[in-house]
Each structure stands twice: as C-alpha cells, then as structure tokens.
Amino acid sequence: MSAPPLVDTSVVVRYLTGDVPELAERAARLLDGPEPVALHSIVLVEAAFVLEKVYEVPRAEVVDALVELLQKKNLHLLDLPKEEAVLALLLARPSGRVSYADALLWATAKSHGAERLYTFDERFPADGLEVVQP
C-alpha cells in the first residue's frame, strides 16, 4: 500500500485564508474530502509564517486554525503524531516566545523518546526534556 499524497503549504494557506477563491475551493474539496492526504510538520511551520507575516493573522488565530486543521480525519502527519503536533502548536501559541519550529522539534524529540536536546537557544521549551548547551 502506498503512502497518501502529500499536501504543500500553498494548499493549506489557500484553504485557511480563502484567498484566490477558485484555488481555495479546490483546496477545500481536497482537505474536506474523503481522500487520505498527508502533511509534513514543515508545512505547518511555513503556513504559520505565511499567515502571520503575509496575511497578518494574529498568532493565536494561526495556532487555532492549524490545530483545527489537524483534527481532520483524512489528514495524516508524516513525521510525528498529530497529538504531539497539537501540543507543540499550543506551546507556541501564547506569546511567540517559542517559535513554531522549536515547538515542533520539541514534539519530535518527545514522540521519539529523546530525553535530551542540545541547543544554544535559551528560550527552547524544556517541558519534559533536558535542554542543554553542547
């Protein structure tokens, strides 16, 4: 059995913004449809960046929209469990202190059983990890 087709950031952004109505409709048919599709967490990071910087959507709304997107039954994440991705997004939600990329790296470490993470970033989320400088 082959893996489900992957969805690119452009489809997610059109779906969430409704921008370019024809493309947004096509994105909705795909993401709201029965066909299984997959995302990589990189798509979540890139979509968050585009929504915040290009469309000027407030961070809390971006997180809420991405969390809602991850609730879709036909949507699968390739690199970590959806539940971990949701926790990561919620970790990044409050103030922007934690970046989306760092939050998803945290989720990846947790979901793969890593107990330690090396970084020079003093703001990296520790929640359940030993975060140390090399």
Which helices and strands, and how do they pair?
Layout (H helix, E strand, L loop, with lengths): L8 H9 L3 H11 L5 E3 L1 H13 L5 H12 L4 E3 L4 H11 L7 H12 L4 E3 L11 E3 L2
Parallel strand pairs: 1-2, 3-4
Helix pairs in contact: 1-2, 1-3, 3-4, 4-5, 5-6
Please, could you describe this protein's structure?
This protein is mainly alpha-helical. It has a single domain (9-132), classed as Rossmann fold (3-Layer(aba) Sandwich). The protein is 51% helix and 9% strand. The protein has helices spanning 9-17, 21-31, 41-53, 59-70, 82-92, 100-111, and strands at residues 37-39, 75-77, 116-118, 130-132. Mg(2+) binds at residues 8, 102. GO terms for molecular function: hydrolase activity; magnesium ion binding; RNA nuclease activity; toxin activity. Its EC number is 3.1.-.-.
Summarize the structure.
The chain is mainly alpha-helical. The protein has a single domain, classed as Rossmann fold, CATH 3.40.50. The chain is 51% helix and 9% strand.
* Alpha-carbon distance between the two ends: 42 Å
What is the tally of helical segments?
A: 6
Strand order of the largest sheet: 1-2
Helix content: 40-55%
Name of the CATH class? Alpha Beta
- The best one-word shape is globular
Mean pLDDT: 95
Strand % is 5-15%
Q: Strand count, sense and closure of the main sheet?
A: 2 strands, parallel
The gyration radius over C-alpha positions equals 15 Å
CATH topology: Rossmann fold
CATH architecture: 3-Layer(aba) Sandwich
The poorly predicted ranges are none
SS-derived structural category: mainly alpha
The domain tally reads 1
Give the tally of β-strands. 4
Pfam families: PIN
Function: Toxic component of a toxin-antitoxin (TA) system. An RNase.
GO molecular function, one term: hydrolase activity
Keywords: Hydrolase, Magnesium, Metal-binding, Nuclease, Toxin, Toxin-antitoxin system
